[in-house]
Amino acid sequence: CYRENILKTAKALVEDTKLLVSGAASSQDKLAQAAQSSANTITQLAEVVKLGAASLGSDDPETQVVLINAIKDVAKALSDLIGATKGAASKPADDPSMYQLKGAAKVMVTNVTSLLKTVKAVEDEATRGTRALEATIEYIKQELTVFQSSEVPEKTSSPEESIRMTKGITMATAKAVAAGNSCRQEDVIATANLSRKAVADMLTACKQASYHPDVSEEVRERALRFGTECTLGYLELLEHVLMV
């Protein structure tokens, strides 16, 4: 029942996505209608996904987290898409903002597809871990793209905070190695959830610290490079666990 509702609402959201993209080239009224429609649809989708997660029961919290993370990714992608649509409104077809809009729409569709794959995998215990890991790998890649962009973080943090956040990577690495050895679905799901948070926290802290007022241009470049290399190394580790 929940799966059908999720599928139906997700399809409606994809249609909203198309309207948002086409709305950038049309009137402000049409754009506003598309934005309002997508906001309503994402609220409905979040509700049915939460009901689906609740139906799993409290004895499987890690799989519940996988589902909730999937809808959070869709919501974030929609927010970014609406922002990109706003920036591209009334601009010519060759304007850079139009390319950003197309990129945001692509991420949106990718995340909706990922959500649907996750919902399907939840019904099959044998594939839950694999799917959770695939979704985490996709999420980390998207976070790395944001990290590598020229966008300056809204706030800065101390280098000490960045160092503190690397401890999460160490813990997640140990968990990933253990999951690769045990090959138990629940271990793989827990690894996927932990990895997602650890890498996202590290990337945020690294970028914020690299833009601290006391940090030189050279040190910033090195910090950003090492943040990227750390993430790529961790992605490689997760790919190995997925293969195993």
From TrEMBL:
Keywords of the record: Cytoplasm
A molecular-function term among this protein's GO annotations: integrin binding
Main location: cytoplasm
GO CC terms of this entry: cytoplasm; focal adhesion; plasma membrane
Domain of life: Eukaryota
Coiled coil feature spans: none
The protein's name in its UniProt record: Talin-2
Annotated GO biological process: actin cytoskeleton organization; cell-cell adhesion
Domain Talin IBS2B: 8-119, 129-241
Keyword match rRNA-binding: no
One Pfam family, short name: Talin_IBS2B
Compartments it resides in: Cytoplasm
